[in-house]
Amino acid sequence: MHNHPLRAALAEEMHLRRLPRFAAPCRLVQIVTVIEEAAADAARAHITTLAEQGREIVPVAGKYGVLGLGPVTLVWERHTEFATYTLLRGGAAEAEVEVEVEVEAGAAAGTPSRYAPSLFDPSPFDPSPFDPGPFEPALSAIFKDLPGAIIRATQIALVPREAGDPTADDLERWFASEATILCDVADGAARIVSDFRLNPDGYGRLLVLDRGLERDEPAQLVMRLQELGNYRNMALLGLPLAQRLTPSVSDLEARLANLTQAVSEPTSQDDRLLDELTFLSARLARLVAETRYRMSATRAYAQLSTDRLASLRIGGVRGYQTLADFTERRLVPAVRTCNSFSARLEDLSQRAAWTSELLRTRIDIALSKQNRDLLLSMDRRATVQLRLQQTVEGLSIVAISYYLVSLIGYLLTAVPGVHHDVATAAAVPVVIALVALGRWRMHKHLAA
Fold it and tell me: Running DSSP on this structure, what letter comes out for residue 37?
């Protein structure tokens, strides 16, 4: 088979970025770090170091890997701007849970592990400050020389149906009562609770109540919930930038309005207007270059968040706001602010181009007037020169005739019997006529 060079890579791409299969009860911790392109090598070196400390379940490739670090399973994902470290460990008090790790085609096979720690006694979340004991020493190894800056960290607890629903007192202990989000997802197969706030331990909390999730559904649900949160945070990165630079855009708009008004005034100086417009265009180009990527990324992340939100199939619970309400109420205004900022920059660029065209037209008209006046002046000078030349040519007829008559006089002195003065006088009108005729024929020839 003559395969395309990218066939294997594209096939593997479709199987990346997924969580291993697990079931309730289960605990997860996800850490999301923002990594610039310059730190890509550092991120790869960091995960390679972690792989050396454990075992590779799915070998670490360019953007994905699953590692076994003692009793903890680590799933690493590398995205364009961020990387995620998802620690997974199953178990509950007085119960054992099996965490199955499915390996991709061609990857080394992993064996399921059984744990029986008391992770949900007395609550699905560790007391504050967060005690990471169940995930040690893997969590400490991750934080050591962690590249990038953490933008999101979340504790996730997947509770089985047998545990029942938490009481109102439980929810008030675990979450901020004024910001609690509670809703059904996956068409009622699960219920989620969170307040999406940072706790004193630096982590957010997400409680997932299993109400009939099967096979791959718990992993898919947690992955979609985390992707929604991660993409939402990445989309919101554009909001502070838009808010910080909005005064600069407003200043440029005011200056451009004044500059456009000055272009319409005939008394303003073109060179001063051109300097001002050049400075304004340079500042505008810098703003566009500084914000274009971030604003485009905000739109892309917002669209991904919207897609993940739709895939969760959310149902409401009376008395509580849903995840859709929370996301739309906070994300949509932020994205619209960024879109408005980008639209203002685009409009400002277009208006600056129009003003530049107006100024260029004004300068061209001024140059045309100057050229017209110069041509009129040259035409007047040419007319004067022509008249002077015609005057000189008239005088030249007399001069040429004078010399010709003198030559004829010399010739007549040699002829005997001819009265010299009379003959010379008679030759004068003839000579003048001949010279004038010759001049006329020469002008006629040149005109032809």
Answer: G
